[in-house]
Every structure is written in C-alpha cells, then in structure tokens.
Amino acid sequence: MTHEEDSSAVLSAIRTELVDWHLWAGRALVLAFAALAGLTVVLFTWLTERAFAAFELMQGGRWWLPLMWTPLCTAAIVWLMRRYAMGSAGSGIPQVMAALDASVTPGHRSLYVSLKLTVAKMVLSTWGLLAGLSLGREGPSVQIAAGVMHHARRYLPDKSQVSAHGLMMAGGAAGIAAAFNTPLGGVMFAIEELSRKPEQRSSGLLLAAIVLSGLMAVSIYGNATYFGVIRIENLSVALLLPGLAVAVLSGLAGGLFARLLLISIRGDGVDRFSRWRRQSPVAFAAGCGLVIALIGLASNGTTFGTGYAHSRAMLEGNNDTAPLYVLFKFVATWVTAWAGVPGGIFAPALSIGGALGNDVAQLTNYVNAPTLIALGMAGFLAAVTQAPLTSFIIVMEMVDGHGLVLSLMATAMVASGVSRLICKPLYGALAQLQLLRLPHPPENKQP
Length: 447
Prior knowledge:
20 helices; Clc chloride channel; 2 domains
C-alpha cells in the first residue's frame, strides 16, 4: 500500500468515525445506562443501610424481637421470591454468569437478568437486612446493574456494535465497582469472573461504562475507602509465619464454606434438612431465620447484617472480637444462603476473614493486627470465590492498603489454591445450577 493510499484509508476511517450517528448514539446510550446502573446501585446501598439501621434500632429496644421477626421475614421473603421472582434467589452473580452462557438464547435471558429481577432483588435483599439476615449487597448489585445495562439493548441502533453479552458483563462489573467503591476491583471482576472472550476484555467503551458507573458512587459517597486507611508498619520476616497461617487457614475455612454452600443450595442430599427444604421451602426458611436469630443473640448482635461495622471496628482497633465470632458468622451466613433468600456473601466473607486474621494476630502476638485482618479478608474472599486477583484488589482498595499489595496478592493466591483442593469454583458451579432452569424442549415420541 502506497503512502497516499494509506493516508486515504486513515482519513476514511476518521470520516466514518465522525459522521456515523448510529455509532455515537450507541455509545451515548451505553454510557447513559452505565450512569443509571451506578445510581441504581447507590440507591440500593442507601436502602440496605437504612434497612439494617432500622433492624438495629428495633433489636436494641427489644432483644427478643428477632426470635419472631427474623423467621417471619425470612419465610415471607422466600414465599414472595418463589412466587414472583425465582430468578432473584441467592447472590446474583451465578445468574449473570448463566445469562452470559452460549446456551442461553436471547428469549431466555430474562430468566436471569431483567428489570423485573432488578427491582425484586433490590426489594427482597433490602428486606433481608431489615430482617437481620447475614448477607451482603455486592452480589445482588451485580445482578441489579446487569439488569439495568441489559435493558439498554432494546434501545440501541441496529448497527450498534455493542452486544447483549458486553452490556451484561459491563453491568455486572459496574455493580461491583459501585457497591465496593472499587473501580479496579470491578474491572478485574469482569476479566476474572464474567469475561471468557478476549474481544470483550478489550472493549474500551465497556471499560468506560464500568468506570462511569463506579464514579456515580464516588460522586455521592465521596472518594473515601470503606474501611479507611490502615497503618502499615515496616514489613519484615516477622509477618511470614503469621501471614502464612492466615493464608492457609483462610483457604481451608473458605473452601469448606464454599463446599457447604454448594451442597446445601444444590439440595440433592438425603438428610432430613434437605428433604424438608425440598418439601416445604417456606417453612424451612422460617427455621433458618430462627437459627440466625439465635446465633445473633448469642453473639450479642454482632452476626446480624453484613458485618461491615464489625470489620471496620476491628481494623481501627476499637472492637474486642469474641473468640467464637468466626464460627458464629460462618454458620449464620451459611444458613442465610441455605434459606434461599436473595443476598450475597462478599461482605460476610470479608467479615469472617478479617476476624480470622484478628484471631491469628492475638494467638501469635503479632504487633500490627490490622495487617493480618486485611490479609484474612483477602484470603477468605479468594478462597470462597476462587477469584484471587479480584479479591486482593477489592481489599486493597477498601483499606487503602497499597503498601500490602504483594502480601495481599500472595495470601489470596495461596488461599485460593488451598480452597481448590476442597471445592470446585463456587460461582461456576452455581451458574450451572441456574442453567438447569432453562425450559427443555419436548421430547419427540416415537409413533
């Protein structure tokens, strides 16, 4: 190609880029829906915070109230969900992963991602925190934002190059970015969990959509980290053994948690509880609610809700964690998920991991407990999700712990590796369960 031909091709490409209104209309629409998705997650965050504050107010005035309130609410949530919005059950991340599967046709994506499910997820997850259940809002934020972004597809011009898969991937990642106020974590989540195709990973427009959604949270809540800034002393070999202990213990505990969760949600066991769950899911949910209430009362209320306040207090050194907190929060979160209510596990996982790190710091007399708490957060989250890069980046951004980058990364990788010896990747397995909800074509009967 001659120099003149090359220049002509460049000018033609620039001209096409500037005058093709379909292209610019599609871009503007995607960014507008990205901003809307971010604002929706911000609204959801505000609702959940107000809901749990209301629960704490009720529980503070009448200590016995959760024994009735939590079981009744849990049963009502499961009844409403099963009757009107079955696709809103659980975390929300498996639903988005299922919607991205090649076997799901456009007509069936509404089983997993839609505006209806977005509204249902917001209402029912908020109600779950009003009930005091041990759940997080980050997983639901993935499905909520993905539903908003996917809705943009019906308004895009026919010549738009943005696919439905790209919109859902960007929406899911935007949900993480806005919920955690961690833009880098959202991008890595898209790469590590949602994206399986290189062409999706390199889309500048979708990357801009993720960042814009995250900016909605920053513009409203400010550019502050969730857990503040932890004090990092000069790292030395003294961290090696305690840090390794945190990594291995987080991997074992997180792998066990993921395995229990998968077996419980799959519900194909022959034990008494699995049969009860299959036969009477609403009554089973009420029983789970009672167990969660009893655990909450036994822990002086510390296991109710997301666990964010408890984690922040630990990092600031203002909380004496009960020796059994890890066990209590572990069981409360597992039972909450087993009940089948809409809700995530990210926030409780951070709380469990942080408490585990704090326990190791006390047992080893390590002088800088916040360091091990942060490592525990990254390790347990990585073990449960088996997404180590996403986990260490989220924790790094949440605690402004850039001085711990290598330690967080090593802990997440070790914990994830240990977890893989115990359980297969949780979200991938749950996504396969979601695919079983696809309607099967009628079998051809032989005459």
